[in-house]
User: What shape does this take?
Amino acid sequence: MEQQPNRLINEKSPYLLQHAWNPVDWHPWGEEAFRKAQQQELPIFLSSGYSTCHWCHVMERESFEDPEIAGFLNAHFVPVKLDREEHPDIDRFYMLFVQATTSNAGWPMSVWMTPDRKPFFGGSYFPPAERWGMPSFRSVLETLARMWEHDRPKLLASAGSIMDQLFDIAKPQSGPGDVSDAHAARCFEALAQRFDAEWGGFGNAPKFPQPSILGFLFSHAARTGNQTAADMALVTLRKMAAGGLHDQLGVTGRGGGGFARYSTDRFWHVPHFEKMLYDNAQLAASYLEAYQLTGEALFADTARDIFNYVLCDMTSPEGGFWSAEDADSLDPNGSGEKREGTFYVWTEEEIGNLLDPDEAVLFMEAYGVRPEGNAPVDPHGEFIGRNILKRTASDEELTNRFGLSMDEASRRLKEARSKLFESRLTRPRPGLDDKILVAWNGMMISALAKGALVLRDKKLLEAAERAALFILGTLYDSATGKLLRRYRDGEAAIDGKASDYACMIQALIDLYQASLDPEYLSTAIALAETQIERFFDQKQGVFYSTAFDDESAPLRMIEDNDTAEPSPNSVSAFNYLRLAAMTGRDELREIALRTINFFSSTLDANPVALPLMLAARAMADTAPAQLIVSGKRSDPAIQRFVEAASRHFQPELTILHANENVEWLPSEAVAIAKDHHGQPAAWLCAKGQCYPAVTEPEELDTLLKSLG
Assistant: This one.
């Protein structure tokens, strides 16, 4: 009998569609599943993950494709699949339960709950047979089914008690004091203790890029003069750029490049090969900041490489940005198996066959290629005889070893990379998660807008504007001010979360500063007002992750950590400080300050929990800086003023275009527009005083340098 798809075949999520042909009778998260559980008096089994999750694929192959396991699961539970990227608030609530009850929190997340969605048992990946000290998935199912049948009152009582505790944990109270310099000092001290001075990053393995921490370190250095803080971030960024975490085969205008999710070792060498849009967006911003601080070409080149990857490999025909590429891909030798990293790794023989002999020797020395393979960590034997490209010798070192000029060494390596890149194009590509998420697109639009100014590249601004117009035209209702979260295959759906509003507001502010188009800032202000109305708790002074009328999650929660993605509260604190400075609206600054100070208790307990919030607090306590430019927006002289200002790392600087027809501009900008009749000029106010107008970008650059 031909196998039929389950209910997931009607979904849009690539992750759910991956499971649409499982023999498991999957339901998407929603009322149909809850009604069935109530009517049949069955517990719900929730499996949450995402399409590029390696261990999600493993558990699918081992358990969800097994007819016997599927049959037992269908008979005794109501199976529900959740895409954690579409519904981060639901996932986070149940992850809180798993973290509180086990030491093994990750994806796939497995949670068993009552028909009214109260959890009573949870974990992460379960193997098909007992191993690694973990029970088999089948044995867990059998035990829980038996308990539900014979000891249900005890399970229900336990679930009710757990739910009460989760409600207490999930609703942190505002701290009794204010966030202060002491919190920032303690955060820096904690990071300094964990810093790997040799390889960069924090702690041992696995190592994550953690752009939120890098942003805090740059901010802390600027505020305190602590150069060690900046050096910690710069060392980390240099080491990551040289490592296997960074796809070394980026070819300008063709694709490749970008960064993988994290490194399994302390050397940034052996990555978990999935590539996420949100990681690359945040890292592009970090490399741009490093370039502003140092002028070092490596940082600018790495930012360009990330943009090249996203614009070539991760951009939809509509202009939005896709979500992720998988870690796994098909074996190019035709075995039919998917393995992690197959698309990216090389044998010495493959490289020798593709390159001329002299070229191959140079390339192998530059990228650490070895006959036996070069992976320092390989617990599953996946990389025997295979090489993960990592820069092990600089151009300068190669010139000495091979008697070449710098230009010649660089040229040969570029040609070699291009040849390997062309060969790699013939391999089966990793799977693509082609949904478009507003929050992640907002991060990428913001990075591109900044990159357009810092790197002086109009193509980046064009890409940012195209993506923003797609989001605003497809997922934004200007009449209600509401955002939707996800677009895929012609469907815009799912109520926007606080992160979608926060990241899109940030994107529009940055787009305004790059383009000076007032429509972007007008829309940012409108979105900010909607975010306050729908997410801000006026009593406590903080943003919830879910809107007041969104009932999809069991509980409205508050994001109190800057993790792989920044907390929407941290992003919002920056946004409202910037909007207050640009509009003169003090009530927006008050919202930012209340949001920052809400987390004083969180930062008392863990000063590294919210590094970006500490950076926002530093901005709030720094004398505001504002640049007002006059002249026609189309005048190239205006753009040169903005680019001159963008050479400097000065996060508190806001940029306004004087225009007497824009209602939200503060009075001083309107006065300048009226008095100067469109002539190109720039006025800077910083460090408590305003300076005479300048008419040349070089004068502005000199003035900003003199201010440190």
About this structure: The mean pLDDT is 93. The first helix runs from residue 14 to 18. The two ends are 74 Å apart (CA to CA). The chain has four domains: 7-170, 181-250+257-327+433-622, 344-426, 626-706.
